[in-house]
Design brief:
This protein has about 160 residues and is an alpha+beta fold. The chain has helices spanning about 15-20, 25-30, 120-150; strands at about 1-10, 40, 50-55, 65-75, 80-85, 90-100, 105-115, 150.
Length: about 160
């Protein structure tokens, strides 16, 4: 099992943060263009527990993959959790936490994931996948700080 944590303060109110992050269609804006991220689900509602979201992504070598996540937990204005139901990982559990702080909103992401193929998956593709996951989250941080302003609190790994 692998873990990635990021943290930043965004120069916005909690209401503005929730309004942005609780709209699944905004994922496209913060995902690297080379992934050719497509949301296949019509999302008329903001994030809610039980919501199923379908995507097509091209994370490696331009090979299309279908990915289905479910929002398993959601407390408006505080946090939500997306978990992979079908997709490239053996397991994906991504927590998004929000709290008001001086100067804006602190947003913490906690990701736990496991590669397919057990120790062989880690041995043969782990270095590539882990690098890609870190790059996706670095890009996300960069885009969010540029758009909303703020500061990256993530500790180097």
């Amino acid at each position: 099992m692998h873990e990635l944590r990021t943290s930043m303060i965004l120069s916005m109110t909690l209401e503005e943060a929730w309004a942005f992050f609780s709209v699944p269609d905004n994922l496209d804006e913060i995902t690297p263009a080379d992934m050719k991220f497509e949301i296949l689900t019509q999302n008329e509602k903001r994030t809610y527990a039980g919501q199923i979201i379908r995507y097509r992504v091209r994370p490696l070598f331009n090979v299309p993959m279908h990915w289905v996540t479910e929002i398993t937990h959601c407390e408006q204005g505080k946090y939500f959790v997306d978990e992979q139901r079908f997709g490239p990982y053996a397991m994906w559990h991504h927590q998004h936490h929000f709290k008001p702080v001086e100067g804006g909103v602190q947003m913490d992401d906690i990701l736990h994931y496991k590669l397919r193929g057990g120790w062989m998956g880690d041995a043969f593709t782990g270095w590539l996948v882990h690098g890609k996951v870190r790059a996706i989250f670095s890009h996300r941080t960069e885009v969010l700080l540029k758009r909303f302003g703020g500061v990256d609190l993530t500790m180097p790994s």
